[in-house]
Amino acid sequence: MSGYELRAQHRPADPLEGGEHVRWHVVRQGSATALCGRYFPLVGDVRPVTEVHAVTPACRCGECWDRLAALEEVWAEGSPREPDP
Ligand SMILES: [Zn+2]
Asked: From edge to edge, which strands make up the β-sheet containing 46-48?
């Protein structure tokens, strides 16, 4: 489960959404493209992918987590091949 990291997308404060202003996406290390296809500059906060389950659901990018779950199934099967995006 290496080669990926979590990258924060900082959003403008929105009083309707409460206090959560960061959404976490899953990106390949060194890449600016998240699994959901969004593009990020290589700045901002990052966390190791091992913390993926520690991110509160409200702060997750659903598409990234769905894709990561699919990748984890492949990894669990021991296949070196990753599904095409
Ligand atoms: Zn995402």
From this structure: 22-28, 4-10, 46-48
Distance 62 CA to ligand 1 centre (A): 7
Q: How far is the CA of 50 from the centre of ligand 1 (A)?
A: 16
- Contact by Cβ (8 Å): 7, 42: no
Q: How far is the CA of 69 from the centre of ligand 1 (A)?
A: 13
Tokens 């600016």 found at:
32
pLDDT for 45 beyond 90: no
For the entire predicted model, the pTM comes to: 0.76
Alpha carbons 70 and 40: distance in angstroms, whole number: 22
Measured distance CA(12)–CA(20) in Å, rounded:
10
Identity of the residue numbered 82? E
* H or E segment to which residue 74 belongs: helix 62-76
